[in-house]
């Protein structure tokens, strides 16, 4: 499912104009990106958490040149689904049929 599909489905279910739904979805993603870039985590009850995870400093290998590379500590965005979300997926019949 693409972002356009999500926007279309929300528009059909709520009766709100597609342009308004698009602006809202884009604003949501913008707030998530800006907040996480500012070091804040986002918690959406019943859905999940958008958090920044710290990756420690490590030494990696460049296989083609056979040299060591130092990768400094950094943060990466991560999503952790809520228990409600996980249970809904686990109990979904359509998921079980697809496997």
From TrEMBL:
Keywords: DNA condensation, DNA-binding. It comes from the Bacteria. It holds the Pfam family Bac_DNA_binding. GO terms for cellular component: cytosol. GO terms for biological process: chromosome condensation. SMART domains: BHL. GO terms for molecular function: DNA binding; structural constituent of chromatin. InterPro entries: Hist_DNA-bd, IHF-like_DNA-bd_dom_sf. Belongs to the bacterial histone-like protein family. This is Integration host factor subunit beta.
């Amino acid at each position: 499912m693409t972002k356009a599909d999500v926007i279309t489905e929300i528009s059909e279910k709520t009766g709100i104009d597609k342009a308004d739904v698009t602006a809202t979805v884009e604003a949501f993603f913008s707030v998530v990106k800006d907040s996480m870039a500012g070091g804040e985590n986002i918690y959406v009850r019943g859905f999940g958490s958008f958090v920044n995870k710290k990756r420690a400093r490590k030494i990696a290998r460049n296989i083609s040149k056979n040299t060591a590379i130092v990768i400094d500590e950094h943060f990466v965005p991560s999503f952790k689904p809520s228990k409600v979300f996980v249970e809904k997926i686990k109990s979904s019949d359509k998921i079980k049929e697809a496997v």
